[in-house]
Every structure is written in structure tokens, then in C-alpha cells.
Amino acid sequence: MKLDPKVPGGPLAEKWDKHRFDSKLVNPANKRKFDIIVVGAGLAGASASASLAELGYNVKTFCLQDSPRRAHSIAAQGGINAAKNYQNDGDSIFRLFYDTIKGGDFRAREANVYRLAQVSNNIIDQCVAQGVPFAREYGGQLANRSFGGAQVSRTFYARGQTGQQLLLGAYSALMRQVKKGKVEMLSRREMLDLVIIDGQARGIVTRNMLTGGIETHAAHAVVLATGGYGNAYFLSTNAMGSNVTAAWRAYKKGACFANPCFVQIHPTCIPVHGSYQSKLTLMSESLRNDGRVWVPKNPGDTRPPAEIPEAERDYYLENKYPSFGNLVPRDVASRNAKEQCDLGKGVGSTRLAVYLDFSEAINRDGASVIFQKYGNLFHMYEKITAANPMHEPMMIFPAVHYTMGGLWVDYNLMSTIPGLFVLGEANFSDHGANRLGASALMQGLADGYFIIPYTIGNYLATISSKPNDTGHQAFRQTADDATEKISKLLSIKGKKTVDEIHRELGLVMWDACGMARNEEGLQKALDKIPAIRDEFWQNVTIPGSGQELNQSLERAGRVADFLEFAELMVVDALSRKESCGCHLREESQTEENEAKRDDANYSHVSVWEYKGKDSSPEFHKEPLIFENVQPSQRSYK
Amino acid sequence: MSKIELTLKIWRQAKSDAPGRLQTYASGPISTDMSFLEMLDVLNERLTREGEEPVAFDHDCREGICGMCGAVVNGHPHGPEKETTLCQLHMRHFKDGDTLVIEPFRAKAYKIEKDLVVDRSSLDKMIISGGFVSVNTGGAPDANGIPIPQKNAEEAMDAAACIGCGACVAACPNASAMLFVAAKVSHLALLPQGQPEQARRALDMVREMDALGFGNCSNERECEAACPKGISIRNIARLNREFLKAAIFSDED
Ligand SMILES: Cc1cc2nc3c(=O)[nH]c(=O)nc-3n(C[C@H](O)[C@H](O)[C@H](O)COP(=O)(O)OP(=O)(O)OC[C@H]3O[C@@H](n4cnc5c(N)ncnc54)[C@H](O)[C@@H]3O)c2cc1C
Ligand code: FES
């Protein structure tokens, strides 16, 4: 198989314009003849569904929740980037592009990232036109804040609920198309597999989560916007339902998977406090604008924070990185927190936490200003921990948050299966080895509003608009496979719950394939994962039947896929012997313990192709060529 | 961290058309640091190991923002804490020995699917009827083109903060969705982008609400008290104004 990223020629700044001009158009009368399936109704899926329907395509959209408004995107707090330069502080499309490429540690494709920066401004315009109530200054102009990895203020926000407001904007556009009859919305439907006919994506098999019915849906193209796979670690900041199933089934049908080991561990989350815990809560990175991170200077100092004098506090980020200070990128902040805890300087009952302290900001700006900025986050923190950050420092610790890896896509966002497109967190495309804050919302909406509506035409114009039907035997076969898998799961009737096994997998992944990775640990994980998988298939217990709402069965199906996928993550982490961005191989560090890239050998996307149940996946490289930026050792000092 | 033990009386119903009833369970030791849903997780893990069907309940974000979770606890939708979703309710607010009666959200326009899981698609239907700005992708003017006074933007945000959990309906003696509709109508009426369609939107959404079988608002204010996001009933006053204005003066039908 040959990977062709299909990056258009010409100067960087002109590629997207040129590509749009060269793209094939589907004439308006013909658009009506094409059916498109969109799986997922988060920012990427909802914006794509609405925009494609507006163009005239017939869209069928699927999601797991009871309403598309509840997709995981809703939980994004901090904000969305755009190169508007409203603050006149030196921002530009090129700077947003540069920051994103650099933040990703030079492991993303230049042309995609540049296009992302280009359309970022349209996103803000579009959202405002939909009625998204972004924060504003007194004079009525849009307000901005700064985020990690940038020295300009380019982040737009709606209190601490930016994802919610952007998603409600996209959801309202989607609902408008439902009213017009251009989108059929199918909620509480889980995609279980992809249907391929003559090498092309032609439909999906779903399970109706209320009745258990296995259903088939045909279309001319399938768009996956199913989000990230952070829940492979069991504990993460992702919503409980976030999963890899749709992407994994597509992988097993021939869509290559790129950089699966690139997982972002977010530095500011509420620390783990008990074994019963089901998920971790993020505290927005925007807090690092005003909060100062510190630990006691002396290991083992267990005094309460108020009793530790200034001179005995170590503001380690400010000391180590004077120019970015508390606003270093996430991977750097997370690793440093781990390092401090490894040195015995962690705080709290588990010693796996660091302080995030607002007292200086409160003294400087006054309590009311700080409360206005962060009140809702402080509230959330207090609800969970019973401590008030206005009076005592927060305790934070890194947690799995975002997955940069995903299905490989070309410049058109098409996977290696013709007719299968992948958007949002589910693809690998824009964030390299580390994503900067406030850029996932940007990417999801860029993909859905402004890219797929153009690029999907390139594919549709090459195929026949003949009506689809699900009569083809490929549909029957795929549906039978799905049904059989469910019966198999239900028949195990073992002793362990799905969550118990998922938690075991999570611990292995967190230890071996988390914030720091090494050959030995990864090799051990490669032994452990198949053992956990075997135990799952022999000893899991799933009460109830398949013909009803059965949440244990839903989770079991997803965990079964995580148990296969985790192995690919580890294989990928093993094969990338350099460190880059979030991927720290302990064998490859600078003298100052920063990630040390090896551009001579690893300036590529690692792309994995499924080769059957009993064979190893085949490795492919997409070389990364930098014509407009000079990869440098990242420095935030 | 301390532990408490509770008696749980939970609504069990196999499917929409099956009869349901309260079933009693001993919670076993529960850490007061747990969230309410983690307490249910612990119960469900135990039931599963005992070969019994776990209690079905909706949830996803567990951060109080997706609006998926929700149940009535001792008569209060989302439980007794003010401005708190069920997933953000923590067990430290209960005492050792308490009995908790846990039931699904009930309303004429909702349907119980199983145990605590409820069909609230009627909320989506009201948005479909008009809860949007009619703007296609592309061609939007510069975002700073129309200045919006900070106060309006903030008030719009107050209304837009609705998470669509539907607790307001479950709390209302008439099972009215007035607060939900009012929040959307207010959010968009407060912004210049929403104003061209404000009359039509108010009419369409209120008509759809009636058609779906939601009750009328008789100013009981239970909705506001139950709302996990503190959406104010002032929005209902605004909706009433918008609706009257539209019904009397506009030529929209
Ligand atoms: C707590 C938190 C805070 C964040 N804050 C920010 C921020 O401030 N700024 C920022 O830029 N990014 C932020 N992010 C990241 C960002 O929110 C996500 O990356 C982004 O929203 C993902 O959008 P998406 O549309 O790709 O996927 P999602 O929103 O995850 O949507 C996935 C959709 O796919 C559906 N789905 C999944 N699997 C299936 C299946 N098998 N069958 C059918 N449907 C399926 C789901 O129902 C859902 O509708 C944050 C993330 C978290 C966890
Ligand atoms: S689970 Fe999302 S609001 Fe409670």
C-alpha cells in the first residue's frame, strides 16, 4: 500500500486556495443524489453534518447519547484559538501555524496545520453568527485570554464553558437541518462496524442501544467523527462513553492508524483520590494564566501549604522556564509535575499532587476579578474536593486527556479506505506529538465546517450516484459478525466485571505507556495486555441480554476493542525510539531531561496497517518534510 | 475520608411498557468523597458480581455539563444540593443511616426507557422547531463587526448555560418545559444575531412545547430551584413578553 498525503503543490499560503480551486465540484442537482453517513455529533460531526446538509447532501448522523447536544465536546472548558490578532499583539496566521507545529514538536504535516490556522478566523465569525455568546470586553468587542505554548492572547472563550457553547452552536445548526429534512438524526445508536464494498466505504452496522436491534445503513461515503481514545487508560478526563470502537473497526477493515502512542497527559487535573473513581476531572489550563505552580522545596515536607514560607517553596516552572513560566506547553508541565513527585516533593494525602496557587493573583487583582474569571472552575473544584481555591491552593496532577494519534488521513481528510473520511480528534492530522490548548475545538470545527464540505466532493465526483441499498451481502455479513460477537460476549458468564478488567488494562497503560516510557516497561506491557485480553474473553461477566438497553454489554464491546488497540499503542511507542512532545522515551533525553527528538530517524508519521488477527501490523512511514519552518529543539526557557 | 452506609430504594423497570417498582438495597460502605454516580457504580459492580442486572442510569461527562445524568433523589431532581447535577453531587452531603429514594425524571412528555433512563427527545424537538439562528456555514461577517455590550453577552450566556438535562420539567407540578424554552429564546433574543427571528422562534417553540404534551407554567418556581445551572425564571418573563409581542404584533403565523 502506498500512502499518498495528497498535499497540493505551491507555496504554503496558497495551497488551500489552489486545492479548493482544483477540487472537483458536485453540481447542486447531483448533491441531492448522494447520501452521507456521519458517525458522531461532537464538534466535528455536528458541524460537518450541518454544513454538508446545507450544501444539499442527504445526511444521516449517529451518536451514542440520547441527544447530539451531549457529545464529549460539551466538556471543553478553556477556549478556542484563532489568528484574529484582535489584541494587536503580533499574532498572525503564520504565528498560529508556527506555534501549533512547534507545540506538536515538529511531528505534524505543515500543509494541514497551515490550513487549520487559515480557517481559524472563519470559525470565530461563524460561531458568532450562530449566536455563540463569547466573552466580551466592556466596549462590546470579543475578549481573549492566553493559553499554554503561546506568547500572544488568541484564545476566545465563553466563561469556562467554551466547548458547551460551540457545541450548542453546531447542534443548533444541525437541528435546523433536521427540521429541513436534510439530516436524519439517529441517537442512541452505536456504530459496530464499517461496511466495505469493492474496496470502498459504503455503510455501517449499528446497534440500537435501546432495543438491541442490529441495523444496517448504506451511503456513498462515511464520515467518522467519533472522538479520541483516552479511555484506553480507564481513568481519563474523557466522557465515560468515549471509545475507540468505530476507529478500531475501521482499522480492521483497512484504514491505517497513525501515531497511536501520541497521548496527551494534561497537567491540571484533580488528583486521583480513591480506587472507586470512575473518571478524572480537568481543571482548565486557563488557570495557569493566574495560578502559580509550586511544591515544597524539601522532600517529605508535609506541612499545610499556608505554613510553608515563601523561601521554602519551589516554583519549579517559573524557575526552570523563565520566559514561559507557568504557561509552558502541557507535556512539559506534566512531566515536571511527575518529576517533582518522583523527587518526593508531591503534596496531598497521596503525595501525587502539586499546588496551583492563586493567592498572588488575588492580592494583585482583587478577589472579585479572579472569581469572575474562574468562579465556575473553583466551584467545580470545591464540589469535588470540599476545598475552596480562593482560600487555599488547588491540588493538581496530570491525567490522560487527549489523543493526538488517530486514523491516518490525507489532505482531503480521507483515510486509506476510499470513501471513509475522518474528522476531529478521531484523526491524527494536526497536532503532531502534542496538542496546544484551545486547538482541538478549532480543529474539530475547521474539519467539519470548512474542510470536509470542500474535500468530500473530490471523492463523490469520482463515484456513481446510483441509489444505495443495504441488500448487498457485505451488509448481511458485517451485521452477522456483529451479532455473533455480541452473543459471544454474553455467553462468557465469568466472574469479573467489565470495569475490573478495564481498570487493569488502564494501570498497565498508565505505568508503561503514560508520561514516561522505556523499552523494558513497554516490552512487559506487551506481555501483560494479551493476558488481560484472554482473561476478558474467558472470565468477564455481562448480566442481561442483547435485546434490550444493556450498559454492561455496551461497555464490554468497547473494552474488547481497547484491549486490542492498547497493544498497537505499545507497539507504536516501542518503535519510536526518540522522544517527541508527549512521547518521552527515557532513553532519549537532553541533559536537562527534556524530550530529545531524533529528526534524522524519526521525522515521520508512524502508520500501521492491519494484517489480520494472527499477524503483526505492517509499518509504513509518511515522511514529514518541513519547507517553511526549521525544526528546532523546543525551548520554553 | 469517612464512610457511611445508606439504604437505597431505587426504581427498577425493565422497559417502557413493563411495570416498575422501588427495590431496596443496602449501599454497603460508601466513602463520603464519592460522587453520587460513583456510589451507584459501586452498587452496580456488586450487583453484577452477584449475577443481577445493574441499575441502568444515563451519564457521560460526569462534570455537570453534558446534561445526560439525572434522577429524583428524595423528591428532588438531581438531589438536595443547590445548583448541582447528580454527577457532581457528593456523598459527603448525606449522613450515615440515611434512606435515599431514587427515581427517574417523570413527565408526560418523557418516557421511562429502563430503570432511571428516560427518553427526553422532546427537548430536542423543541430546539428543532426553532431554537437556532438561520445561518449557513460560510460568509459570516467579521466576528467583531457588531459590538455586543458586555452586559448583553453575559446575560445571553446566563441563559445559554442550560445543559438540557430536563430537571426543570421533572420538578414542575405541571411538567412544563417553560424554563427550557425560555432559556433558549432569551439566549438568542439577547444577541443581535438572534433578533431577526425572535418572534417566529418564540411562537414556534411555545407551540411545539404545547404539542408535545408539556404542561403550562403557573409560576410555581420549582424549575428554577431544581436547575443545576441556576437558570433564572426571569427568562420566563422574557419569553412571555416575546411570545405576546409576537402573537399580537407580528405577521408571523
Ligand atoms: C475536559 C476536557 C476539556 C477540554 N477543553 C478543551 C479546550 O478548552 N479547548 C480545546 O480546544 N479542546 C479541549 N478539549 C478537547 C476537545 O474537547 C476534544 O478534542 C473535542 O471536543 C473532540 O471533538 P470531536 O467532535 O472530535 O469528538 P467528540 O466530541 O468526542 O464526539 C464524538 C461523537 O462520536 C459519537 N460516537 C463515538 N463513538 C461512536 C460509535 N461507535 N457509534 C456512534 N457514535 C459514536 C459520540 O456519541 C459523539 O457524538 C477538552 C477535552 C476534555 C476532555
Ligand atoms: S453526567 Fe454529564 S451532567 Fe452529569
Characterization of the model:
The complex is a heterodimer of chains A (637) and B (253). Chain A has 637 residues and is α+β, with helices and mostly antiparallel strands. Among the domains of chain A are: 266-401, Succinate dehydrogenase/fumarate reductase flavoprotein, catalytic domain (Flavocytochrome C3, Chain A, domain 1); 480-600, Fumarate reductase/succinate dehydrogenase flavoprotein-like, C-terminal domain (Methane Monooxygenase Hydroxylase, Chain G, domain 1), CATH 1.20.58. In chain A, 37% of the residues lie in helices and 14% in strands. Chain A has helices at residues 15-22, 28-31, 43-55, 93-103, 110-130, 162-179, 245-252, 316-320, 330-342, 359-365, 367-385, 440-460, 473-492, 498-513, 519-539, 551-575, 599-602; strands at 35-39, 58-62, 80-81, 155-156, 183-186, 189-197, 200-208, 214-218, 221-224, 257-258, 263-269, 292-296, 313-314, 354-357, 394-403, 406-407, 420-422, 604-609, 618-623. A five-stranded parallel β-sheet of chain A has the order 5-2-1-9-17. A five-stranded antiparallel β-sheet of chain A has the order 11-15-14-12-13. Chain A has a four-stranded antiparallel β-sheet with strand order 16-10-18-19. In chain A, β6 and β7 (200-208) form a beta hairpin. Chain A is globular. Chain B has 253 residues and is an alpha+beta fold. Chain B has two domains: 3-113, Ubiquitin-like (UB roll); 121-134 and 147-249, Fumarate Reductase Iron-sulfur Protein, Chain B, domain 2 (Orthogonal Bundle). Chain B contains eight helices and seven strands; from the N terminus they run ββαβββββααααααα. In chain B, β6 and β7 form a beta hairpin. In chain B, α2 packs antiparallel against α6 (198-211). Classes of the chains: A alpha+beta (637), B alpha+beta (253). At the A-B interface, α3, α5, α6, α11 and α12 of A face α1, α2 and α3 of B.
Topology:
The complex is a heterodimer of chains A (637) and B (253).
Chain A: H1 15-22, H2 28-31, E1 35-39, H3 43-55, E2 58-62, E3 80-81, H4 93-103, H5 110-130, E4 155-156, H6 162-179, E5 183-186, E6 189-197, E7 200-208, E8 214-218, E9 221-224, H7 245-252, E10 257-258, E11 263-269, E12 292-296, E13 313-314, H8 316-320, H9 330-342, E14 354-357, H10 359-365, H11 367-385, E15 394-403, E16 406-407, E17 420-422, H12 440-460, H13 473-492, H14 498-513, H15 519-539, H16 551-575, H17 599-602, E18 604-609, E19 618-623
Chain B: E1 3-13, E2 20-31, H1 36-49, E3 72-73, E4 76-77, E5 99-103, E6 111-114, E7 117-119, H2 121-130, H3 150-160, H4 167-171, H5 178-189, H6 198-211, H7 222-226, H8 234-249
Parallel strand pairs in B: 1-5
Antiparallel strand pairs in B: 1-2, 3-4, 3-5, 6-7
Helix pairs in contact in B: 2-6, 3-5, 5-6, 5-8, 6-8
